[in-house]
Task: structure prediction
Amino acid sequence: MAELLTEICGTKLRNPTILAAGILGVTSATLERAANSGAGAVTTKSIGPIRREGHPNPVVVETPCGLLNAVGLSCPSPEESIEELKKTIKELDIPVIASFYAHSELEFGNLAERISGVKPHLLEANISCPNVENDFGMAIGTDAEASSRITAEIKSMTDIPLIVKLTPNVTDIREIARAVEDAGADAIAVINTYGPGMAINAETGRPVLSNMFGGLSGPAIKPIALRCVYELYDEVGIPLIGIGGIQTGKDMAEMLMAGASACGIGTAIMNRGVEVFSEICRELEEFMDEHGYSRVRDIVGLAHR
Ligand code: SIN
Result:
């Protein structure tokens, strides 16, 4: 039977599936559900510097090949979020990744320091949300200089390994990846949602999402995620977490072959339920057994031969 162990920045994962940020990630109870369903690691919903309401409903709409969401980075107060994170770390026996966002260098650094106080295994800086005002989210992640400054500031405030989550909505993702690697990022997560896009209800003649536009996830963006991981595997020397459209063990094998060391799962939970983690692992194991691969590292980056 193939061995699914993998590693991100010295943190060992029992398998390469990671609950992606934003889904089931607000409370320790929901994060525990993902852990009990076989996830190799879990990521919290992004913790923000102040309580934030986000956009009014509807914030999610299903499209033929994926989901559009415009939640708007809603979050409880940082005190509440960090308390919940502390509980999660205590209760789970798998790595916990704390996702967070802020508006400025200083705010990112301060929040990273506060979150680090409860010792998550890894931090994930969200500089890539497409659904917020123009002074944060994707506005940072599309600017190499801002991405670099924020990464450097976070690194100066914490010893916990830092993943930076990038947006695909740039002309050249390699430029942004190089900037955050040079500034000290320990790993890169690619990709956040694509777009934004929109859905219109033909019956009402109105946009479906209250925010009108939302980020696209799911099978529609898998080819884009694969391309980004493939390009970055050649470009940077730090581990990659591949996110975007992974629904099956075979999808995951492809993402590992592109160069990811682990993969985020999000929209697939909507389609296959929370059991998707153990199901993807079983499918990946079967695929590896059938093809004579014994370890995850045997297929990481294989498509680059
Ligand atoms: C949202 O809250 O709108 C989605 C989060 C993200 O895209 O990072």
Remarks:
- The chain has a mean pLDDT of 97.
